[in-house]
Amino acid sequence: MKWASRILQGLLVLDFLFAGATKIFSSTDQIRELFTDKLGTPVALIYTVGVFEALAALVLLAGYRSHKAAVASIAVMLVILIGATVTNLVAGLVGDAMVPFVILIFVAILMYLKRDSLKSFAGANSVSK
């Protein structure tokens, strides 16, 4: 299970890093064509999501060494993916909603595989309060 978790974590790092970099380095016209025209989201929001995706990928990469980093990154990824899925569904783009939904499932699987880290992280926070 440990290796499955590490491989899935690495694949999610690559996916989020690529998705974030694509948004960050795209021109405004490309962002409008891909997102704004279809979803009605502002260009600045797409750039912001790209930054958060790239940061989540880097923090998940640090998650190989730090359980807290992995937990924080998984939380950010869940928010981004739920937002992407819901936004596409509200826009009536069911086919486009499938990609973030499938990745959401993979993040949920990673969360399940790292459940011991999540429990210890939650336990440490409740003790410190």
Mean pLDDT: 91
The number of distinct helices, counting runs of at least 4 residues, comes to 6
As residue ranges, the low-confidence spans are: none
H/E element order: HHHHHH
Specify the biggest β-sheet.
none
What fraction strand? Answer: under 5%
* Terminal-residue CA separation: 32 Å
**Structural class, from helix and strand content?**
mainly alpha
Helix content: over 70%
Radius of gyration: 16 Å
Q: How many DSSP E strands?
A: 0
Q: Tell me the domain tally.
A: 1
Coarse shape: elongated
Membrane topology: Multi-pass membrane protein
InterPro entries: DoxX
Keywords: Membrane, Transmembrane, Transmembrane helix
Main location: membrane
Structure description:
This protein has helices spanning 2-24, 28-39, 43-62, 67-90, 94-113, 115-128. The chain is mostly helical and 129 residues long. The chain has one domain. Helix 1 (2-24) runs antiparallel to helix 3 (43-62), helix 1 (2-24) crosses helix 5 (94-113) and helix 4 (67-90) packs antiparallel against helix 5 (94-113). The longest helix has 24 residues, at 67-90. The mean pLDDT is 91.
